[in-house]
Every structure is written in structure tokens, then in C-alpha cells.
Automatic annotation (TrEMBL):
Protein name, entry field: Putative GNAT superfamily acetyltransferase
One GO molecular-function entry: acyltransferase activity, transferring groups other than amino-acyl groups
Superkingdom of source: Bacteria
Organism listed in the record: Microbacterium immunditiarum
Keyword field: Transferase
SUPFAM superfamilies registered for this protein in UniProt: Acyl-CoA N-acyltransferases (Nat)
Domain N-acetyltransferase per the UniProt entry, residue ranges: 27-186
InterPro entries to which the protein is assigned, alphabetical: Acyl_CoA_acyltransferase (IPR016181), GNAT_dom (IPR000182), GNAT_N_AcTrfase_prd (IPR038764)
Length: 278
């Protein structure tokens, strides 16, 4: 692969960004290679998703195979202990796109920048390997993940996927359908975005922890779709309400996105902002 001067500068900047964020998070991030490291990474994913280690979403043998075939398997360490891990693989067209399959961070260090540092390490690695796009999925009901993906990274929500994985039995996803938002991150864009204007008319709002749908204004150029700020807490204290939210968000976001409405932002409070297609 021939690397242009501009591409070389982009990769160098991405490496610097990744190193700065890793230092800020107090983490040493590197690729994993040994079988023992793969066992540790698989066990970390099991802890994060609250399942027995033999039911981890990614087993050690698969991690070995992915790393051996030059895909992305990396870990974040602090004091020699694995505190986070991330896995990605190339998808067609292989020379330009990486799918980030799973990223997990130990609960003891959650919210301290380790996940963000892993994502930027993955970005730098992908650019070094010729990729220009990265895709992944996330639960669109988790407001903090929506804000991070769309606002912090400036990734684009491109498709609403209903019950994407089917029935899941782990401690995070059990008892609900596995809807996901497909995200695409253009890696050579500036990875930052401003705050979103939430003044658009809402089509879904929070009313005493329950969803309340509103009609789509016929002449609205933009609309707002609200979600709970803490769906995980709601799932614990009121599982029935949480299940209602899954169906309500699907009913609001899925037809809008299928109809060409563009997801252009997410507020810190938990609101999706969409603009009508031109």
C-alpha cells in the first residue's frame, strides 16, 4: 500500500491523539498476542457483561484467530493488570472498513476515559492499516453511549436495527429485545462535534419514566426523540417500563431513519436530534 504524505500526517496525528488520551486515562494500550492475554480479555468481557467466563461473548480461541489474521485485538493495562479490551475485524471492502465488534472496560475504572482511549487507539491502528471508516453498533437506549458516539466522536447513526442479535441471556441484555444503532465513523474527519440544539419539536418524551409518543409535525424540518437518562437504572427498578421504552424508541427512530431523516446529534440529557431529508 502506497502512503501519501497527507495520509502519513493523518496517521501520525491519530497516534498522538491516541497516546494523549491513553496517558490521560492512566492506561497503557497495546495489541494482545499471547494465549494468556486472550484468556484474560475473554474473562474481562465476561465480567463486563455479567456472565460466566465460559459464556463470554468472545472466547480466547476466537481472539487468537482474529489477532493471527491481522485483525484488531487490543487491551488497556494499568499496573500490569488488564482493565479494558477491544476487538475489531475488517469487512468488505476490506481495504477501507473496520467493524469494531466489542469493547469493554472494567467497572472499577468506568467513566475515567479508558473506553475513549481504546477507541482512539483503534482509530489510529485502523488508519495505519489503510481503513478510512469504522462501524459498530450500540444500544440506542443508553444515553451516555449515544452521546459519546454521535457527539464526542462525530460518528453517524446510519441504520436502526431491530432485535439485531435476537435473544441475549447475559446480565446486561437479558429480558429485552436487542435493538441496536449502526454507527459509521469516518476516520479522517475531525473527531469532535459541538452541542446539539434540542429546540426541535419532540415525537417521543419521558413522562414519569414511561414513554409518551407525540405526532410528527407535518411541516417540521427537525424533530427530537427523547430517551431516559439512565435506562440501566430503570431496567433494575422497573423492567416493564424499560421494555416499553424499547418498543417506543423503535417505533419512533426506525421509521424516521428508514425514511431518510438524518441523525445529526444527541444531547447530554438524552435526546436524539434528526433532520428531515431535503
Amino acid at each position: 500500500m502506497t502512503v501519501t504524505l497527507e495520509q502519513g500526517r493523518l496517521v501520525a496525528t491519530a497516534r498522538d491523539d491516541a497516546a494523549r488520551l491513553a496517558e490521560a486515562a492512566g492506561a497503557d494500550i497495546r495489541l494482545l498476542s499471547s494465549p494468556d492475554e486472550m484468556v484474560d480479555a475473554s474473562a474481562l468481557f465476561a465480567r463486563v457483561w455479567r456472565v460466566d467466563v465460559d459464556r463470554s461473548h468472545v472466547n480466547p480461541g476466537l481472539l487468537v484467530a482474529l489477532a493471527h489474521s491481522d485483525n484488531y485485538v487490543a487491551g488497556a493495562f494499568r499496573g500490569g493488570r488488564l482493565i479494558g479490551a477491544s476487538v475489531g475485524f475488517f469487512h468488505p471492502p476490506a481495504e477501507s472498513a473496520l467493524h469494531s465488534h466489542i469493547t469493554g472496560v472494567d467497572a472499577a475504572v468506568a467513566g475515567r476515559g479508558v473506553g475513549r482511549a481504546l477507541k482512539f487507539h483503534q482509530r489510529a491502528w485502523a488508519l495505519e492499516h489503510g481503513a478510512r471508516r469504522m462501524t459498530w453498533t450500540f444500544d440506542p437506549l443508553v444515553a451516555r453511549n449515544a452521546y459519546f458516539n454521535v457527539q464526542t466522536l462525530a460518528a453517524r447513526g446510519i441504520r436502526y436495527l431491530s432485535d439485531f442479535y435476537g435473544v441475549m441471556s447475559d446480565g446486561v441484555n437479558a429480558g429485552q429485545e436487542s435493538d441496536r444503532m449502526l454507527i459509521e465513523w469516518t476516520l479522517d474527519d475531525e473527531p469532535a462535534s459541538g452541542e446539539v440544539d434540542t429546540g426541535a419539536p419532540p415525537v417521543l418524551v419521558v413522562a414519569d419514566d414511561r414513554p409518551a409518543a407525540l405526532p410528527l409535525p407535518a411541516d417540521a424540518a427537525a424533530v427530537r426523540v427523547d430517551i431516559p437518562r439512565d435506562i440501566e437504572g430503570l431496567r433494575t427498578r422497573d423492567p416493564d417500563a424499560a421494555r416499553l421504552w424499547r418498543l417506543a424508541l423503535r417505533g419512533a427512530l426506525s421509521p424516521l431513519m428508514a425514511g431518510g431523516w438524518r441523525l445529526v446529534g444527541v444531547s447530554r440529557e438524552g435526546s436524539y436530534h434528526l433532520e428531515r431529508p431535503l
